[in-house]
Amino acid sequence: DHGPAAGEDASSQERQALEDAEETITVSMTCQTASVNKFLAGGVVRVRLPAGSTVGVLRHVLIFDLPPEARVLVQRPGEDIVALPDSDPVPEKVNVTDFKGRRSFYMLFSDRECLEALGIMRSYFQRPEAQRRLDALQTMAGDNDAMFNAHLSGLLIKEVYPTMIRRFDLPGDETGGARLIMEGLGMDGRRFDGYFGWEQLEYKLLIVTTWHEAEALMRNKRGVAGAEHFWRELEGRKFSMRVAFEDSLLAQAAAEAAARAEAGAGAASQEQERAEEEAEPVVEAEAERVP
Question: How confident is the model over 260-276, as pLDDT tens digits?
């Protein structure tokens, strides 16, 4: 297999997946700029994240505007201001140092939101009229993929992203929502970074399958290649997890068999000892009868 199978019972899986809606949190950051050693007056930046996100996830979303040496600070009741490690859950109000950004809103969709957003994109391009528009764009661009992708971006900004912005209650921006939507989807790898268990891995594969279907409908070669790359990566993780699980079952079965064998050997030894003890008086009696 070279990629996710199109239509792989996606609709029923999506309905089940969407029933488990993830909540989001909005983190309010008071930002100290990198150039001026003070916190911006009224310079609160909002960052929308999946519930349960860590400080590390916050840094990942702000990766281009928050350098590694920047600190994420919080003042807990009755305590001094402390710097939070990346492994800590991110609170809803923080101060950050060395902030380089100029935007007031950043985001990362939850997995559920990401799946729904990709579904909106896929649904639009499943329409015959959308495919006719792509036919016209492809005729206009010829073999020039860069020109085709530029026209495709314009079509997304005009026809698709506004639906997503309304659906997820997002602020507009100067890119017509393109930057915010792409950032929120996190398909540059952020969506698939880190460790996750079996069920979440299956969900990630569903996201990649939907992404692949949407990109194929859009005729976006780069997007299709990206989806196939992450599909192979996740399938590799799935295989490794399955092998590790099977190995653990085999090890457990071997340990249980060894324990049973040891218990059986112990029981046989005890039985032999009892037989020898019972035989001793008989041997002694026989010996006494010998003249």
Answer: 887 777 676 777 777 66
Give me the residue label for tokens 């036919």.
135
Domain annotation for the chain: domains and CATH numbers: 23-107 (3.10.20)
Read off the pLDDT of residues 215-258 as tens digits, 9 standing for 90 and up: 999 999 999 999 999 999 999 988 888 887 787 777 888 788 78
Q: What is the pLDDT of residue 287?
A: 59
Amino acid at 25: I
Q: pTM for this one?
A: 0.74
The dihedral formed by the CA atoms of 204, 210, 216 and 218, expressed in degrees to the nearest 10: -120
More confident residue, 194 or 26: 26
- Which of 199, 277, 282, 273 has the alpha carbon at shortest distance from 241? 199
